[in-house]
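Next up, a specimen:

>
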Amino acid sequence: EVQLVESGGGLVQPGGSLRLSCAASGFTFSSSVMNWVRQAPGKGLEWVSNIYTYKNNSYYADSVKSRFTVSTDNAKNTLYLQMNSLKPEKMAVYYCAASPYGAARGVISDFGIWGQGTQVTVSS
């Protein structure tokens, strides 16, 4: 079964850190482009970051650059997002999503596999 399962969300204070994980199964993780996407209530999907698992190139949205770090453990078929210096926001759901080998950066319509999401709230 093709599946992505996120974990690691929760409540964190502004300026704090959180690490999200995404466990993949049922497809060739090491030949995929793995993405993080978030959605705040009432807003559209926002691409956050991606990583080409087969060459370890990673990219970030300007809003998170220098604060977030994406990485993978290909042996464990797991994607991570380390989030530092988190800014206050009511809530956002973070999704991991997979797109095919060679997919262009940040094209959400290419994301064929999605996780169920994990909620992150940054609040004091």
User: Anything to note?
Assistant: The chain has a mean pLDDT of 95. The CA atoms of residues 34 and 98 lie 5 Å apart. The radius of gyration is 13 Å. DSSP finds no helices and eleven strands in the chain.
